[in-house]
Amino acid sequence: MKFYTQIQALINSMRTDEEGATAVEYGLMVSLIAVVVIATVTAIGIALNTKFGLVKTALL
Length: 60
Description:
Elements: H1 2-16, H2 19-59
């Protein structure tokens, strides 16, 4: 009977423990931020490449 009580206590503590869910939420937020940063840097890089190409053409 003591084993059953310990198992019940363990199950109840798992139900109320939300640390894993919080870690997943933070992971999703970090992933979303990384995607936005990568997209922004890529867009800026393409725009800069175009501008430098125009400058190069004007100089030659």
